[in-house]
Amino acid sequence: MTLSVDRVLPSNTPDSWDLAEIFAYALAYGLYLTMSTIALLIIILKTNFFEEKFGVTLDKVYPDGAKDPNDYMIHMIMYLQVAIISQALIFVTRSHGFFFMEMPSYALLGAFCVAQLISSIIAAYANWGFTQIKGISGGWIGIVWVWNIIWFLPLDFVKFAMKATIIKYLRQRHEQQIAQEVRGQSQGVPMARTTSRVGSIHESLYSNRVSFIKRAARSVGFKGGKKVHLSQNELQRFASIQAAHTGQTLARHASRQ
């Protein structure tokens, strides 16, 4: 919801919802973030790197050193990793260049901080057996945060690579389709400018007034270049009558307004 009050740089060209571009970006970001989650899971299950370097532990470790992939603590680690990196993605997608070159609004930044603070608290204290998750230590929480920061930084290069390849191709194809449509229209029936309905209504309203004045002038002999002088009061009275008559006409035909 805080995206509605975010401050972003507008595009240099008119934009439209292009589903092909949206799906292409979503696929690229999704594959990259999936790789970050799978890589973390493999390191946890297949190595003792985190245990040896940071002194963290898991609940279910077999005598031969193997780890249970259904360990509730591993479930919690995966939850926290996905929650943080998925929401952090918004800082990449909202910017044209590097994410740190376009400062987000305080509302968006605050929403991210509050949401991930809550996620970290849940990861530390939520021992909910029915969800098959269990609270993890502060060491694991710190590991997840550092892991996500490492994987977050190259996301801008994923965006740039997409713009330079697939997105560029999709936009060129879209421009070619538009050019073909324009050429097809130019070879068809030529377009002729017609008078708008509003213009025709105004013309019908005021042409009658002008023709009436001309007929009245001819009937009383004011023609042949003769000049007519009217007092200011007469002109105001004539303008008032004309305005009142026009108002009555518009009132009878509301669609003309």
From TrEMBL:
InterPro entries xref list: ATPase_P-typ_TM_dom_sf
Transmembrane parts of this sequence: 22-45, 72-93, 105-126, 138-158
Signal peptide, first to last residue: none
Keywords for the protein's UniProt record, in alphabetical order: Membrane, Transmembrane, Transmembrane helix
Classification via PANTHER family: CALCIUM-TRANSPORTING ATPASE
Name under which the protein is recorded: Related to cation-transporting ATPase
